[in-house]
Amino acid sequence: MKKIITQVGEKLRANEYKLTPQRQIILEVMLENKDKHLSAEDVYILVKRKAPDIGLATVYRTLELFLEHEIVHSVNFGDGRKRYEYGDSTEGHHHHHAICLRCGKILEINEDLLEELEKQVSKDYGFTVLDHELKIFGHCSECK
Protein backbone atom coordinates (compact mmCIF):
# COMPACT_ATOMS: atom_id res chain seq x y z
CA MET A 1 0.00 0.00 0.00
CA LYS A 2 2.88 2.37 0.77
CA LYS A 3 4.19 2.01 -2.77
CA ILE A 4 0.82 2.97 -4.25
CA ILE A 5 0.47 5.93 -1.88
CA THR A 6 3.91 7.14 -2.95
CA GLN A 7 3.01 6.75 -6.64
CA VAL A 8 -0.26 8.63 -6.18
CA GLY A 9 1.59 11.41 -4.34
CA GLU A 10 4.05 11.70 -7.22
CA LYS A 11 1.24 11.73 -9.78
CA LEU A 12 -0.59 14.50 -7.95
CA ARG A 13 2.60 16.55 -7.49
CA ALA A 14 3.33 16.22 -11.23
CA ASN A 15 -0.04 17.89 -11.79
CA GLU A 16 0.57 20.59 -9.16
CA TYR A 17 -1.53 19.01 -6.41
CA LYS A 18 -0.53 17.62 -3.03
CA LEU A 19 -1.39 14.36 -1.33
CA THR A 20 -2.68 16.01 1.83
CA PRO A 21 -3.27 13.92 4.97
CA GLN A 22 -7.02 13.98 4.22
CA ARG A 23 -6.50 12.80 0.65
CA GLN A 24 -4.17 10.07 1.87
CA ILE A 25 -6.80 8.74 4.29
CA ILE A 26 -9.38 8.71 1.49
CA LEU A 27 -6.89 6.89 -0.75
CA GLU A 28 -6.20 4.35 2.02
CA VAL A 29 -9.95 3.67 2.33
CA MET A 30 -10.17 3.13 -1.43
CA LEU A 31 -7.19 0.76 -1.35
CA GLU A 32 -8.59 -1.17 1.63
CA ASN A 33 -11.85 -1.64 -0.28
CA LYS A 34 -10.45 -2.33 -3.76
CA ASP A 35 -13.01 -5.08 -4.35
CA LYS A 36 -16.01 -2.84 -3.60
CA HIS A 37 -17.97 -0.28 -5.57
CA LEU A 38 -18.22 2.61 -3.13
CA SER A 39 -20.38 5.71 -3.41
CA ALA A 40 -19.00 8.96 -2.02
CA GLU A 41 -21.27 8.45 0.98
CA ASP A 42 -19.86 4.93 1.53
CA VAL A 43 -16.32 6.33 1.41
CA TYR A 44 -17.32 9.09 3.83
CA ILE A 45 -18.66 6.59 6.37
CA LEU A 46 -15.42 4.58 6.20
CA VAL A 47 -13.24 7.70 6.36
CA LYS A 48 -15.11 8.97 9.45
CA ARG A 49 -13.92 5.90 11.36
CA LYS A 50 -10.31 6.89 10.74
CA ALA A 51 -10.61 10.68 10.75
CA PRO A 52 -13.85 12.11 12.17
CA ASP A 53 -12.85 15.65 11.18
CA ILE A 54 -12.98 14.95 7.41
CA GLY A 55 -16.23 16.22 5.91
CA LEU A 56 -18.40 14.85 3.12
CA ALA A 57 -17.47 17.78 0.83
CA THR A 58 -13.78 16.88 1.19
CA VAL A 59 -14.55 13.28 0.24
CA TYR A 60 -16.51 14.40 -2.85
CA ARG A 61 -13.79 16.83 -3.97
CA THR A 62 -11.03 14.27 -3.40
CA LEU A 63 -12.83 11.51 -5.31
CA GLU A 64 -13.38 13.87 -8.25
CA LEU A 65 -9.70 14.91 -8.12
CA PHE A 66 -8.68 11.23 -8.10
CA LEU A 67 -11.07 10.59 -10.98
CA GLU A 68 -9.64 13.48 -12.98
CA HIS A 69 -6.11 12.11 -12.50
CA GLU A 70 -7.12 8.49 -13.22
CA ILE A 71 -6.38 7.26 -9.71
CA VAL A 72 -9.93 5.96 -9.40
CA HIS A 73 -12.61 5.37 -11.98
CA SER A 74 -16.34 5.70 -11.61
CA VAL A 75 -19.24 3.50 -12.60
CA ASN A 76 -22.96 4.21 -12.68
CA PHE A 77 -25.15 1.15 -12.28
CA GLY A 78 -28.32 2.93 -13.36
CA ASP A 79 -29.51 3.81 -9.86
CA GLY A 80 -28.39 7.43 -9.99
CA ARG A 81 -25.40 6.92 -7.68
CA LYS A 82 -21.85 7.23 -8.94
CA ARG A 83 -19.63 4.51 -7.52
CA TYR A 84 -15.85 4.64 -7.34
CA GLU A 85 -13.20 1.95 -7.60
CA TYR A 86 -9.47 2.28 -7.16
CA GLY A 87 -7.71 1.58 -10.41
CA ASP A 88 -5.58 3.33 -12.95
CA SER A 89 -7.40 3.36 -16.30
CA THR A 90 -4.05 3.20 -18.08
CA GLU A 91 -3.64 -0.37 -16.77
CA GLY A 92 -5.96 -1.69 -19.48
CA HIS A 93 -9.65 -2.33 -19.73
CA HIS A 94 -11.81 -2.22 -16.69
CA HIS A 95 -13.65 -5.30 -15.62
CA HIS A 96 -17.34 -5.59 -16.37
CA HIS A 97 -20.32 -5.90 -14.05
CA ALA A 98 -23.41 -8.06 -13.68
CA ILE A 99 -26.02 -6.23 -11.60
CA CYS A 100 -28.94 -7.95 -9.87
CA LEU A 101 -32.12 -5.92 -10.33
CA ARG A 102 -33.72 -7.42 -7.20
CA CYS A 103 -31.12 -7.26 -4.45
CA GLY A 104 -28.59 -4.88 -6.02
CA LYS A 105 -25.67 -7.33 -5.80
CA ILE A 106 -22.84 -6.43 -8.17
CA LEU A 107 -20.70 -9.21 -9.60
CA GLU A 108 -17.39 -8.44 -11.25
CA ILE A 109 -16.78 -10.09 -14.61
CA ASN A 110 -13.07 -10.17 -15.34
CA GLU A 111 -13.21 -11.82 -18.75
CA ASP A 112 -12.82 -9.32 -21.56
CA LEU A 113 -14.71 -10.72 -24.52
CA LEU A 114 -15.12 -7.42 -26.34
CA GLU A 115 -11.66 -7.14 -27.86
CA GLU A 116 -12.82 -8.65 -31.18
CA LEU A 117 -15.69 -6.17 -31.31
CA GLU A 118 -13.26 -3.31 -30.67
CA LYS A 119 -11.04 -4.48 -33.53
CA GLN A 120 -14.05 -4.68 -35.84
CA VAL A 121 -15.27 -1.20 -34.86
CA SER A 122 -11.77 0.15 -35.45
CA LYS A 123 -11.50 -1.50 -38.84
CA ASP A 124 -15.03 -0.79 -40.12
CA TYR A 125 -15.45 2.75 -38.81
CA GLY A 126 -11.90 4.06 -38.42
CA PHE A 127 -12.70 4.61 -34.74
CA THR A 128 -9.91 4.50 -32.16
CA VAL A 129 -11.27 2.62 -29.15
CA LEU A 130 -9.70 3.72 -25.86
CA ASP A 131 -11.89 1.78 -23.47
CA HIS A 132 -15.27 0.19 -23.01
CA GLU A 133 -17.67 -0.68 -20.23
CA LEU A 134 -20.22 -3.47 -20.07
CA LYS A 135 -23.09 -3.78 -17.58
CA ILE A 136 -25.32 -6.83 -17.61
CA PHE A 137 -28.63 -6.54 -15.75
CA GLY A 138 -30.59 -9.52 -14.46
CA HIS A 139 -31.09 -11.65 -11.38
CA CYS A 140 -28.35 -13.25 -9.28
CA SER A 141 -28.41 -16.92 -8.29
CA GLU A 142 -30.04 -16.11 -4.92
CA CYS A 143 -32.83 -14.00 -6.47
CA LYS A 144 -33.83 -16.00 -9.54
Automatic annotation (TrEMBL):
Please, which domain of life does this record's source organism belong to? Bacteria
What note does UniProt attach to the cofactor annotation?
Answer: Binds 1 Mn(2+) or Fe(2+) ion per subunit. Binds 1 zinc ion per subunit.
Q: Which InterPro entries match?
A: FUR (IPR002481), Fur_C (IPR043135), WH-like_DNA-bd_sf (IPR036388), WH_DNA-bd_sf (IPR036390)
Q: Which cofactor does it need?
A: Mn(2+); Fe(2+); Zn(2+)
- A GO molecular-function annotation: transcription cis-regulatory region binding
- PANTHER family to which the protein is assigned, alphabetical: FERRIC UPTAKE REGULATION PROTEIN, ZINC UPTAKE REGULATION PROTEIN
Q: Could you tell me what this protein is called?
A: Ferric uptake regulator, Fur family
- Which organism encodes this protein? Desulforamulus reducens (strain ATCC BAA-1160 / DSM 100696 / MI-1) (Desulfotomaculum reducens)
